[in-house]
Structures are given as structure tokens and as C-alpha cells.
TrEMBL record, chain A:
Example GO molecular function: sigma factor antagonist activity
Lineage: Bacteria, Bacillati, Actinomycetota, Actinomycetes, Micromonosporales
Pfam families assigned to the protein according to its UniProt record, in alphabetical order: RskA_C (PF10099), zf-HC2 (PF13490)
Protein species of origin: Winogradskya consettensis
Entry keyword Cell membrane: yes
Segments passing through the bilayer: 96-117
Name of the featured protein: Regulator of SigK
TrEMBL record, chain B:
Family classification: Belongs to the sigma-70 factor family. ECF subfamily.
NCBIfam families: PRK09646.1, sigma70-ECF
Record gene name: rpoE_4
Species whose genome carries this gene: Winogradskya consettensis
BP term (GO), one: DNA-templated transcription initiation
Protein name, as recorded: RNA polymerase sigma factor SigK
Keywords tagged on the record: Sigma factor, Transcription, Transcription regulation
Length: 248, 202
């Protein structure tokens, strides 16, 4: 997608009418275009005004449930304490790191897990900056391919796997977001599926329930499978399939 | 609350300083862990948070569940609110809308939904959608401004916002090309912004 194409998503973006990958692409774009951010902020403000008309009396028990949950929910610190302003090499790196964190966050879905990931990512940001930059460039180049095909499949136990493939790049971006993370001694493993053959396509970290991975050579296969394996992965997939994304 | 109203309040009540009723002030207090401020914030925004989610999800039980998640999320992430990027109410409703839409999408795989939408598009009465939306618009200003949109702009915006459809689904529902729908969503919101006089001053 060219910057113009990406920017034309601004309306769909504020209406939450884009998919996870488009959202990530748009947020990267806005990170590099301050003037676009003004339009984004104004249109978001505008769309929120549409909620003015949706007034409806909540069930009485909602308030007590919310207050009870609030009583046992720890708040996030202000962003100043986590913003990676000083340690990084340059603004470009900062942006990539944040964009990488954002991409993971967005691909993963929503909720507590998401923020846990974001926080952890940002805390570890110095360490992952270079890796994230490279990876992010890779991901972006794939997502920007004109022949991008996006396929999604739900996961067993909740969550989803999205595969964005470019035949010309001969690579796919796989975004996996499971509602529940594996035990700490287990890991999700990706498999390229062709006919009856499953080939290892990467293992997530043990206990990791969400990730964005680049899988080379995936386009042209029949599909992508996800299984739950012992930490470190297996040579052959262990039944059952947690997700199967058909690519044909 | 007007000065006039405050001035007429009996002394024994006005002796206690009036609590802040601005959502932004409340949110800043909430960010400091002020549960009393959160209670007040709840009273101000919960009906619209619940109403918006219910509008999108249709199912009251699910709406209640998601509304709870959203309101707890507001408490948890209050410190992340950045006044330079918009109002506190918009920040809250952005979280609420996003969560509602996430729930819609997780309910059905994209393919199922597209198929269903495709099948339903034959006989979905769009006037009904528009009527329902405008019929419930209590805020005169928003209603008036929505009327200024072209038919396609209004449908594109409302199908996405109030029903949680992706722009691809909207394109199918309206039998319009994808780029057109993207453009209408943007144009529609820009026209709405100008009509409502929305400004975000950094």
C-alpha cells in the first residue's frame, strides 16, 4: 500500500472498520506523518460524538460489578515512566520499536494480555530495538505488497490466526492471538501444510499466547497449521490442530 | 451547571465544594487512583458506554459483559489518556467501540460474516437502518449534521459505527466498490466534523 492508500483508511480506521493488519499499517503511517495525526484525532473525536445518541440505562448490577473489579485492578503508570525517549539511537528507531509493539498489541487482540505484552515490550525496548526494527521493516515490506492476500481462522479455545501472504515476496506475516496462553512448558508451533506433509514454520516462545511472525516460503502451500507442543517445538505436529488457515 | 443554579443553592449544600463534573478532570483524578472520582465518572459515561455497546452487539447480556470490561479498562489505563489528542469522553467511547467491534468480529469468523452479510444484503432494508439510527438520535446537533451527509456517506458511517461492520462488509451491503466506501467514510466524517465544529487543539 502506498502512503496515500494507507491514509485513505483514516475514516474506516476511526470507525473500527479495518482489520488488524490494516490497523497496524495505518498506525505505522500515522506515526510518521504528524499532519495525518491531526486529521485522525479530529475524526476520532467526531466519530465518538455518534455515541451521544446511544444512551441506554445500564443494568443496576453493572455498577457494583465494575466497582468490585476496580477494587482489585491495578492501574497502569503514566506513560512518562515507560516512554522510550532517551535510550534509543534515533527517532526512527523509537518509532519502529513503538510500531513493533503496537503491531504485536493490535494483532494480539485486546484486553489484559495485550497491555501486559505492550508493557513488557516497552520495558525491554532497548534490547529488542534493533531486532524489532529489522523485523518491522520485513513485516512492512510484506504488508505493503500489492498482491497481499489476508486469511483468518479462529483458534481452538478462542482467539484467531491471521495470515497475510505475498506470493511475490514468497513470505507471509502470521499474527497469532490466542485467548489463553499455553502453560510455561508448552509452546505454539506453526506448520506449513502441503498435501499430507507438515513442515516446521517456527515455534513461539514457551507460554506465549500471541505473536507476529514472518514465515518465508509459506505462499504456495495449502495452508498454515498451529499446534500446541512441548516448549521448543516438535519434529512432527502433535494433534489436535489449534488452527488451520487455508491458503488455497 | 450554571452559576445561576449554584448561587441559588442553599448554604448548607454549597458549603461543600462542588465536585468536578468535567469528564476530563474526573479522568485525571481516576488516573491518580481516586475511586470516588471513578464512581462519578461511571455515572456520567456508563449509560452511553453501555448504550453504544448494546447498539453494536444487540445482545443485552453480552453488552453488559463488554461494558464491564470497558469501564474497568478505563480505570486501569486512565493514566494513558492524552488530552492533547482529544477529549476524555472520546477516549472512553473509542475504547468502548473498539471492544464492542472486537466482540462482534470474534463471534463469527470473517468468512462466515461476509457470507451472512452477502446473503442478507439482498433484502436488508437500509431505510430501516437509517430510520433507526436517526430515530434514536437524541442529540439534535448530531442528527442535523448526519442529515447533511450524502446518502452513501451516512450509510457507510452508520453501518460501521452502529453495527460494527468492516468497510469490506459495508461495501458488500451497499454494493459499492471498496475504495468508494473508504472514501465515503472519510468524507462523511470530515463533513460531520465540520458541521459539529469538532476541533482538537494540541
Amino acid at each position: 500500500m502506498t502512503p496515500t492508500d494507507v491514509h485513505s483508511l483514516v475514516g474506516a480506521y476511526v470507525l473500527d472498520a479495518v482489520d488488524d493488519l490494516e490497523r497496524a499499517a495505518f498506525e505505522r503511517h500515522v506515526g510518521e506523518c504528524p499532519s495525518c495525526r491531526t486529521e485522525l484525532d479530529e475524526l476520532r473525536e467526531t466519530s465518538a460524538r455518534m455515541a451521544d445518541s446511544t444512551w441506554s440505562v445500564p443494568p443496576p448490577q453493572l455498577k457494583s460489578s465494575v466497582m468490585a473489579a476496580v477494587g482489585r485492578t491495578r492501574q497502569l503508570p503514566p506513560p512518562e515512566t515507560i516512554k522510550p525517549e532517551r535510550k534509543l539511537r534515533g527517532s526512527r528507531t523509537q518509532r519502529w520499536t513503538l510500531a513493533a509493539a503496537a503491531a504485536v498489541v493490535l494483532a494480539a487482540g485486546t484486553g489484559t494480555t495485550v497491555f501486559a505484552i505492550q508493557d513488557q515490550r516497552v520495558r525491554d525496548q532497548s534490547a529488542i530495538a534493533s531486532a524489532a526494527e529489522l523485523r518491522q521493516e520485513r513485516i512492512q515490506s510484506i504488508l505493503a505488497s500489492p498482491d497481499l492476500v489476508v486469511r483468518t481462522s479462529p483458534m481452538r479455545g478462542g482467539g484467531k490466526v491471521t495470515v497475510a501472504s505475498s506470493a511475490t515476496r514468497n513470505a507471509s506475516v502470521v499474527a497469532l492471538g490466542a485467548d489463553s496462553a499455553p502453560q510455561s512448558d508448552q509452546a505454539f508451533q506453526l506448520w506449513s501444510l502441503r498435501g499430507d506433509t507438515a513442515t516446521d514454520a517456527g515455534v513461539l516462545a514457551a507460554g506465549e499466547g500471541s505473536a507476529v511472525q514472518v514465515v518465508d516460503g509459506l505462499p504456495g502451500n495449502d495452508g498454515l497449521g498451529v499446534t500446541l507442543e512441548p516448549a521448543g517445538g516438535s519434529k512432527v505436529p502433535t494433534a489436535p490442530l489449534f488452527a488451520k488457515v487455508s491458503l488455497t | 451547571m450554571t452559576d445561576h443554579g449554584t448561587a441559588r443553592r442553599p448554604d448548607h449544600l454549597s458549603a461543600v465544594p462542588a465536585p468536578p463534573t468535567d469528564v476530563g478532570d474526573l479522568l485525571r483524578a481516576v488516573a491518580r487512583g481516586d475511586e470516588a472520582a471513578f464512581t462519578k465518572l461511571y455515572d456520567l459515561v456508563a449509560p452511553r458506554v453501555y448504550g453504544l455497546i448494546r447498539r453494536v452487539l444487540r445482545d443485552p447480556a453480552q453488552a453488559e459483559e463488554v461494558a464491564q470490561e470497558v469501564l474497568v479498562e478505563v480505570w486501569r489505563t486512565a493514566a494513558r489518556f492524552d488530552a492533547a489528542r482529544g477529549s476524555a469522553t472520546a477516549w472512553v467511547f473509542t475504547i468502548a467501540h473498539r471492544r464492542a467491534v472486537d466482540r462482534v468480529r470474534s463471534e463469527q469468523s470473517a468468512a462466515d460474516r461476509t457470507l451472512k452479510v452477502g446473503a442478507a444484503s439482498v433484502d436488508t432494508p437500509y431505510d430501516e437502518v437509517a430510520d433507526e439510527v436517526s430515530g434514536r438520535l437524541e442529540r439534535q446537533q448530531v442528527r442535523r449534521c448526519m442529515d447533511d451527509l450524502t446518502e452513501l456517506q451516512r450509510q457507510a458511517v452508520t453501518l460501521a459505527y452502529y453495527q460494527g461492520h468492516s468497510y469490506r462488509e459495508v461495501a458488500e451491503l451497499l454494493n459499492a466498490p471498496l475504495p468508494t466506501v473508504k472514501t465515503r467514510m472519510r468524507d462523511g466524517l470530515i463533513r460531520l466534523r465540520d458541521c459539529l465544529g469538532v476541533e482538537v487543539t494540541a
